[in-house]
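Input record (one chain):
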Amino acid sequence: MNKKNPGFVLILAVLITAVMTIAVTTLINRALVFGRITSTLQKREQARLLALSGIQIALAQLAATSEQKNSDTKKTSPPGQSPPPEPIKSVPGLLKIINRWQQFNFTQESDNLDGSCQLYIASEQGKININALYDFKKKQFIKQGSFDGLKLCQFIGGRLSSFMTSNKFVEALKSALKEHTEPLQDITQLLTQTQFAAFKNNIFLEPNSNMALLDLFTAGTHTLVQPWFLSRSLCSVIEIPCIGELDIKKIENFLKTLQPKDMTPWSERWNTTVAPVYGKQWSALSPDVQILFNQKLETDAFSIISYGTFGGIVEKIYAIVYKQQGSRDKPGAYCIKKLYWI
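The corresponding structure, as predicted from the sequence alone:
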């Protein structure tokens, strides 16, 4: 005689329903999560593209100044001869774009997307070349004539008190440089020293910031810096206003009086050419700073910071670009040497 289990079917139906409910709920949750992830990835990719677009905008601006310089030299260069030195009148073109944060906004109506791009251009010749301060073979700071790399580092360290004391800065720098037998290829190599952890949040310059490790130092090939193209961080150390904060028209009036071939020492012409712009007399500058300035007005390397913003996501990129050798009829193009996602 068979026993009947009237509740068995009901229990089985409830179990099957529960399992199906869990499976469907899990599937829906995963679909929602994947949808959000996909949306975030798409926004991040758009932000990255906008950041890269900022680099291209900066390169176009630099190229425009080069083309202007080239057109100026064509008017004065006899056939078959090399162009003369870069005209002073072309420098304002650079001063209008360097050491200034530029904002570009894009809309769906005109650009087919809603986003923005923020960029900042600085001259590498406006930063202190760390390789020019230290002899990697002798393992000591360079001292030649009036130039004293150790004293300069001590002076800089004294202006970085918000990060570390002057002595700690010099010792940290000395320890970092001693580890290398060749000139540095990148300033971030200094971060191998734990003492430089104080700069971990100030490696790259940011809006509303006046100090960053890669804006103060560079690992280039030049020895002296350009007083007209001083970086924002170096201006902060010297305690003079950054050129990007000044009125271009005021600067242009003084640039008109300069001569491209003028090799007069800065001690004789600073007060009449640069001091009216920066508001600081030659005698007010530290002797350790006075020896830094290059007599020639030239620059061919730049750093570019670009922020791309899309859908609330910000992507940042840092590039160092160099100008390639051009010809009399065609200016050299700028090429990217280093690129960092930050």
